[in-house]
Hints:
The chain is 55% helix and 11% strand. The chain is an alpha/beta fold and 165 residues long. Helix 7 (102-110) links the parallel strand 4 and strand 5. The longest helix is centred in the middle third of the chain and has 13 residues, at 80-92.
Amino acid sequence: MTVVADSSPLIILAKLNCFDFLRELYSQLCISTEVYEEVVITGAGLPGASQVAASGWIEVRSIHNPATLSAARKKLGLGVGELSTIILGQELGAQAVLLDDFKARELAKKEGLSVRGTVGILETLHRQGHVSDLRLKFQQLIMHNVYIDRRILDRRLRSLGIAPL
Length: 165
């Protein structure tokens, strides 16, 4: 299963000590050179940088037509990481893209891509037994100032029979 990730799920999962579980979920995880630059180079010393740099199992790929990225940035106003993730996902025929930004998620869906976010990844890790206390992980999201509506987290917890935050 080929999956292309944006920076935010990688960084957030690193903050929550769940980064290495990505390898358990996805047989082939790719990131664009733009996402690599954002996480490892620009984000040196920050959560996710050392994990991505040291992970030989993440494949860094360039998009085929950089002009597409430039044109999309001007037209859509999204970040280079989100857009390069969507474009690379299309080019590779990825089964999913990992994105958290709402506008980027909507664009990816419009482009026919399956979208997963950090919350969904954490739920999958919980269902597979890698994360025993999902409620705690959701609390950590809030403590790390991850922008997500608490009502969404509560709704997800309730759907799994877990007490809300």
